Amino acid sequence: MKLFSIALLLSFFSISHSYAQDFEYARITGSDIELKNTQLDSNANAMVIREFGTTAVQLDNATGKTYIDFEYHVRIKIFNKEGFNHGNIVIPLRIYRDDEDEIKELKATTINIVNGQLVKTELDKKQVFNEKKNKYVSLTKFTMPNLMDGSIIEYSYRLHSPYIFNFKTWEFQSDIPKLHSEYIANIPAIYNYNVSLRGAQKLTKQNAEIKKECLMIAGNKIDCSKMTYIMKDVPALIEEDYMTAPSNFRSAIYYELSDYVMLNGGKKSITKTWKDVDYELNSDKSFGTQMKRKDVFKELMPQILGKASDDLSKAKAIYNYIRKNIKMNGFIGIYSENNIKTALEKHSGNTGDINLALIAALSAADLDAEAVILSTRANGVVNNLYPVISDFNYVVAKVNIGDKSYLLDATEPLLPFGLLPLHCINGNGRVINLKKPSYWYDLKASQKESTKYVLNAELTADGKLKGKLTTYSLGYAALKKRQRIVAANSVDEYVEKLDEQMPGISILKHSIENVDSLDNTLVEDYEIEMKVFDNLNADQSYFNPFFINRITKNPFNLNERTYPVDMGAASEERITMIIKLPANISVIDKPKDMSMALTENGGKYLASTSMQDDSFVFNEMLQFNKPIYESEDYLSLKEFYSRIIQSQKTDIVFKKTK
């Protein structure tokens, strides 16, 4: 993704009631009917033929308030049944403290060719449903009627939004290709917006024109600007493994209100400086005030600290206390929902309650604690050009001990001290300090995802492999396994599910150590048995040694990827097998030893097989040293995986010698 600011030095802004650039509703052309997906993307199940949108700032004469007026119109071709899901329409509406977005003039039509005749089916308004997603967003939903292969669907609506700070975002790119996407932004001269264009795709055309006296407020005639943006032949943004929020990479235009001119000639700034934001957060009753609540923990501190004497031990004791005593209620946010005292009493709270309580408790022990506000991976990147508090949806703690800093999130009961959950590893966070100016902080994983498998086994004369498999997991690998163990309700049930997932292997006995000791390696010991030979009398038998976490599907399948491969953390997996062979069995063929590496020490893959006395020894290692690989590395990663998959198809060939 490329993010850059478009400088709109507008001494004028515009409103236009003429939407001449829009296309006529439900007037289908022959080219629409004959359109094939081969025109742009032969893999597409649906395609946008044309879409048009326009946004304006209007005045509500009844209330005297300005509002955002957005009109949307789209025509889509459905090529096959796999594209029917694009007939399920969801329109998100924002809910504000005292008002909310409103849909008006909604109409929708499905057009089919039946026996050579054009058949139009209108949406029944009774089939439009409203659903409240959460306290900030509601959804208007409907399904296009009478869908079939080759349907053309078309719908339009007008959206009334009472909040002009976020001028309507326009997404040129979606999960299906678009032939033509056009957007007109009509902005009054009294408003100045910061505008940014994200994504890899380029505009086909953009145009600006002045319109005189397009808006009248309190008898004042205001000039306007009309900005037109067109993008043609837009490829679909295909979501793939190892990506953060798709909104980070879609080609789209974003607006944030910077300032506006009042009718008396004065200017009011909306876009704040970080100094302004620091003051607001530190004085906010649901943020800074909660960070200062050391009194909540004053009497509890001797109980919490126990025998901890050094600062690191104190920090760990406090982290463990908060982690165990306030459970996540399912809601995230940077602010406390009620207050940290209530959360502690009820043993429940949102992310703000839990981690602001953690900061207050650390401060009560005279430790240097700060708050870090961030945007989760699913929420998208934050704007680094100017503060936009609505970009941030999560808060964690930062404790500084000596020359080292630790990022802490007490909302996840299975996280070891100093490790953030992967959903928090997303670019930069902003550190909020009660006494010092805020600053950016790079959010990096403090540990990698590390797993080691050791198998000591014997191949018996009856064609079975029997032995002990030990797995050592650290970092995110251990976190994921502990989460699965907890989800299974017990270790025994976890092992039962594991046994079911490996049909060729039977787990005879098991033991798992350090399930609750989060700072230690999670150790799993399994006594296993698996069938190797199907035909005991055959001269030759085959065994694939890549049965542990064998890669059967390449996670990278695009011809080109315009966004990074973001794994969140470095990773390493090692596998060692020592298998004793019967006296009458020898190895006559084996997979070729393999060693390959990514450029710039990005990672490597090693696989080797050798004989040691009466045993064959197999070693394999897959290592990724970077949490993020740029789009330029994509084809190398794709080829890297492709070669691993081919290598892992090769068997060891055993031969009877007697």
Automatic annotation (TrEMBL):
<dbReference type="Pfam" id="PF01841">
    <property type="entry name" value="Transglut_core"/>
</dbReference>
<dbReference type="InterPro" id="IPR038765">
    <property type="entry name" value="Papain-like_cys_pep_sf"/>
</dbReference>
<feature type="domain" description="Transglutaminase-like">
    <location>
        <begin position="300"/>
        <end position="380"/>
    </location>
</feature>
<feature type="signal peptide">
    <location>
        <begin position="1"/>
        <end position="20"/>
    </location>
</feature>
<keyword id="KW-0732">Signal</keyword>
<dbReference type="Pfam" id="PF12969">
    <property type="entry name" value="DUF3857"/>
</dbReference>
<feature type="domain" description="DUF3857">
    <location>
        <begin position="69"/>
        <end position="204"/>
    </location>
</feature>
<protein>
    <submittedName>
        <fullName>DUF3857 domain-containing protein</fullName>
    </submittedName>
</protein>
<dbReference type="InterPro" id="IPR024618">
    <property type="entry name" value="DUF3857"/>
</dbReference>
<dbReference type="InterPro" id="IPR002931">
    <property type="entry name" value="Transglutaminase-like"/>
</dbReference>
